[in-house]
Design goal:
- The chain is mainly α.
- The protein has one domain (about 25-100): Multidrug-efflux Transporter Regulator, Chain: A, Domain 2, CATH 1.10.1660.
- About 55% of the residues lie in helices and about 10% in strands.
- It has 5 helices and 3 strands, in the order αβααββαα.
- It has helices at about 5-15, 30-40, 40-45, 65-75, 80-100; strands at about 30, 55, 60.
- A 3-stranded antiparallel β-sheet has the order 1-3-2.
- Strand 2 (about 55) and strand 3 form a beta hairpin.
- The longest helix has 20 residues, at about 80-100.
Length: about 100
């Protein structure tokens, strides 16, 4: 391998576009992170009606819930534990709405 080839390779690496590094997404996210996690704006995210969790005054979304939502959009089959958890969550939300306790 000649010295000229090495220099050309190093130049190509320096000129290559830099890919953004995605963060290590936390398990629970505020809307400022949850919306970009799904690739939508905060206003669009609010309209998706994904179940949120409240800790004190902090409203948080679970990454597992966001992943399940995205999997359903892509018609991807859910694993058995996820399918059971999804059914339980749908039932819980239905009963909350029925009682009027959103």
């Amino acid at each position: 391998m000649s010295l000229g080839t090495v220099n050309q390779s190093e130049e190509a690496r320096r000129d290559a576009p830099v890919r953004p590094i995605l963060p290590d997404w936390p398990r629970l996210m505020r809307i400022e992170l949850a919306a970009p996690y799904l690739g939508v704006s905060p206003s669009t995210f609010r309209s998706l009606n994904i179940a949120a969790h409240t800790i004190g005054r902090c409203v948080l979304w679970d990454r597992a819930d966001l992943d399940r939502y995205a999997d359903r959009l892509g018609n991807q089959p859910l694993a058995e534990p996820d399918r059971l958890a999804e059914a339980a969550e749908v039932e819980r939300r239905f009963l909350e709405r029925r009682r009027g306790t959103n």
